[in-house]
Amino acid sequence: MSALHAGDPASFAADVLDEGPAELEHVPGVASHRPTKTCAGGALIRDSAGRVLFVVPNYKAVLDIPGGMTEDDESPKAATLREIHEELGLTVPLGRLLVVDWTPRNGVWRDCHQFVFDGGVVDGATARDPELEGVLYLTLAEAEPSIYPSLHRRLTLALSALESGSTRYAEFGREV
């Protein structure tokens, strides 16, 4: 799997070549004045009882889903697959995109596009990353006091998208 693309690396490389030479600035310096937006990918993984898999990070006070920030030239899906492997030691075939959510700037963190993919059903996952204290399988109601409200809204949409078959677009966890 390429760091650039979570699909077929050969076809991705061909697509890059087909795009032509790198675009040059018509007006020098214009690109450096554009805002930088962050991007993250995460997986909605459930157990056979339907509970959601949450990771317990040791670097923040709230639970999260497996996944994380993209690296330079890395797609959200590739970042999600990489993070699942780093955090849980799992190689899972990610399913379809469930939610795209925009979150606004929060303190030191820039605004971000958050992608949630279907991570399927995995029973008995364990933490493998030293950044994690462990994992928990919880219902959204059980997790609500321990996750950000925006993540609760995003996961509610993801579960709904899983059932309906329709990807959802949200802003700060609210479908628009």
From TrEMBL:
Pfam families reported for this sequence: NUDIX
TM ranges: none
The keyword RNA-binding appears for this protein: no
Chain ranges of the Nudix hydrolase domain: 35-161
Keyword Hydrolase: yes
Xref: InterPro entries: NUDIX_hydrolase-like_dom_sf, NUDIX_hydrolase_dom
Top-level division of the source organism's lineage: Bacteria
Protein name, UniProt field: Nudix hydrolase domain-containing protein
Organism phylogeny: Bacteria, Bacillati, Actinomycetota, Actinomycetes, Pseudonocardiales
